[in-house]
Specification:
The protein is an alpha/beta fold. The protein is about 45% helix and about 15% strand. A 7-stranded mixed β-sheet has the order 5-2-1-6-9-13-12, with helices on both faces. A two-stranded antiparallel ribbon has the order 3-4.
Length: about 325
């Protein structure tokens, strides 16, 4: 390994999610193409033995080294992927192997920077590496992480979080965002942008970018509320006050509020705002509509209300969001 290379060790175990393992190395490999010197990363896959590991996708991966062998080396970045099981009711639960946890704890002591991808955060937490830290994981196991590890400040919304020298990533595809963020941290934003362009990605989704969208939220078991959700989606540009929603559902405002809280864990007004932000995100990504037009389409009333909603929910502005996620040529109409 060149003295200028940074050693990245990716932890392998049976049932590991394949993209968690293969995504980051693709990002790191493209770095060399975008730099003029030998600086970059060397990636090693480590497991308990060098026997092939079968991933959750059924694809077998061959480890480069054993945990014991790599423990003798100084490690720049330890990357821990995850694994889940799904029961007959399609409930997802993160899996944690105590042997892997022990090795992660040992390797972390020789590592400059520890990262997890998706539900790999559960392994870091079990190793005690997230105690007192803010962390994220895939939205489907965030409640499990919080329940199993109360010393961890779990934030299920961002796509990745950096807390000191520990980084945690959210959904599976966000492993690419996390890897790009690591490249930017090591080699600068300009270099990371060049890598992102090779991947046909946008640099960079901010760490605060939500991994949620309205359709990902839990489906209500109440048909009346499900019908009302569809009503909200179809009428975002119109008035959707509590009174309007209660009238559409043919129930009292108090009953509507109670059902929303019980079924969706939120208030009707908060849900309406999230739906409007979701529609605005789509418009910003796929059209050149002005902010005034988007404000009208989504029912925000004023552009100031739209901007405040974006800051509150996404920690960014509509125009900054458009610059980062635009899916059509960047010929933007007037706006703020």
């Amino acid at each position: 390994m060149s003295a200028s290379e940074r050693l990245v060790v990716i932890v392998l175990f049976e049932g590991v999610d394949l993209l968690d393992v293969t995504g980051p190395p693709e990002v790191f490999a493209l770095l060399r193409r975008e730099t003029d010197d030998a600086a970059g990363y060397r990636v090693l896959l480590a497991a308990g033995t060098t026997d092939p590991v079968t991933t959750s996708a059924g694809v077998r991966v061959l480890p480069d080294v054993t945990f014991e062998e790599v423990a003798a080396r100084p490690i720049d970045t330890l990357l821990v992927p995850g694994s889940v099981e799904v029961d007959d009711r399609r409930r997802v639960r993160a899996l944690v192997d105590p042997v892997v946890v022990d090795w992660v704890r040992k390797l972390a002591g020789r590592t400059r920077r520890v990262t997890s991808v998706c539900v790999g955060a559960h392994i870091l937490a079990a190793a005690g590496l997230l105690d007192g830290r803010r962390a994220t994981t895939h939205w489907s196991t965030a409640q499990q992480l919080a329940a199993d590890h109360p010393a961890v400040e779990v934030d299920a919304d961002p796509i990745f979080i950096r807390d000191g020298d520990v980084w945690t990533g959210a959904g599976i595809s966000s492993c690419l965002d996390l890897a790009l963020a690591l490249v930017a941290d090591d080699f600068g934003e300009t270099t990371a942008l060049r890598v992102a362009r090779q991947l046909v990605m946008y640099l960079k989704r901010p760490s605060g970018q939500s991994q949620f969208s309205v359709p990902l939220e839990p489906v209500s078991t109440t048909r009346r509320i499900e019908d009302l959700r569809h009503h909200i989606t179809r009428h975002l540009g119109g008035p959707l006050t509590l009174a309007d929603l209660a009238a559409a559902a043919h129930i009292s405002e108090r009953q509507l509020t109670r059902i929303f809280k019980a079924e969706l864990g939120t208030t009707p007004s908060a849900y309406v705002e999230s739906a409007r932000v979701e529609r605005a995100r789509h418009e910003l990504e796929s059209t050149d509509a002005t902010l005034e037009r988007i404000t009208s389409l989504c029912g925000f009333g004023t552009t100031d209300t739209l901007i405040r909603a974006f800051r509150r929910r996404l920690d960014t502005t509509p125009m900054e969001y458009r610059r980062r996620f635009r899916a059509v040529p960047d010929q933007i109409g007037s706006g703020t």
